[in-house]
Amino acid sequence: MTAVDWAGLHRAAQAACARAYAPYSTFPVGAAALVDDGRIVAGCNVENASYGIGLCAECGLVSALVAGGGGRLVALACVDATGGPLMPCGRCRQLLWEHAAEDMLVDSSDGPIPMADLLPRAFGRSDLDRVAAAGAGSTDARHEQGQAPIGRDPRNPDPRDTAALYRAVASPSPDTFDPEDLR
């Protein structure tokens, strides 16, 4: 494993935190990570008046990782405005998992801990590959096996689907919408 300069990661995370856009929560967050090629990538939270579409610092970090050429995350430090360590939320743990080195570490108030301990039994590419290998997740495979719902073949959509969906959306009340239109 690459040697981790935790103090350097904390400085990079604090610098990112200082650039956070958090006018609504007033809770800026910064994150920095060591990449397997020695780079440090960082991100900060970016809020929005439409609260649900705000971005966590780890999202910005992963975006910087990918935009910078990719790689695997080796170590992560996430901090608040006081410089204190923060743990990634559940959504960010899943996002980080996708880009983590096998032995990635995440700093905590108790010291570095393995990413695998933060997201045990994580959902990942192997789950998708397993389902794809069985042919169970493919609409094309279900169609070829005669299991695709009629009118739901993406290669030949039923025009009634679009019309029924439009009627459902335009309908003034549930009483005027017939769910059978979507079958």
UniProtKB/TrEMBL annotation:
Q: Where is the CMP/dCMP-type deaminase domain?
A: 4-126
Q: Name one GO molecular function term.
A: cytidine deaminase activity
* Residue numbers spanned by region Disordered: 133-161
EC number annotated for this UniProt entry: 3.5.4.5
* Pfam families recorded: dCMP_cyt_deam_1 (PF00383)
Tell me the residue numbers annotated for binding Zn(2+): 56, 89, 92
Q: What class of enzyme is it?
A: hydrolase
List the record's Gene Ontology CC terms alphabetically.
cytosol
Q: What does this protein do?
A: This enzyme scavenges exogenous and endogenous cytidine and 2'-deoxycytidine for UMP synthesis. Recycles cytidine and 2-deoxycytidine for uridine and 2-deoxyuridine synthesis, respectively. Catalyzes the hydrolytic deamination of cytidine and 2-deoxycytidine to form, respectively, uridine and 2-deoxyuridine.
Q: Which UniProt keywords apply?
A: Hydrolase, Metal-binding, Zinc
Ranges of compositional bias, category Basic and acidic residues: 152-161
> Protein name, please?
Cytidine deaminase
Q: Does the keyword tRNA processing apply?
A: no
| Active site residues per record | 58
Family, similarity comment: Belongs to the cytidine and deoxycytidylate deaminase family.
Cited PROSITE patterns:
CYT_DCMP_DEAMINASES_2
Q: Which CDD domains match?
A: cytidine_deaminase
Cofactor(s) required, per the database record: Zn(2+)
The UniProt annotation places substrate binding at 45-51
Q: Which reaction(s) are listed as its catalytic activity?
A: cytidine + H2O + H(+) = uridine + NH4(+); 2'-deoxycytidine + H2O + H(+) = 2'-deoxyuridine + NH4(+)
Which Gene Ontology BP annotations are present?
nucleobase-containing small molecule metabolic process; pyrimidine-containing compound metabolic process
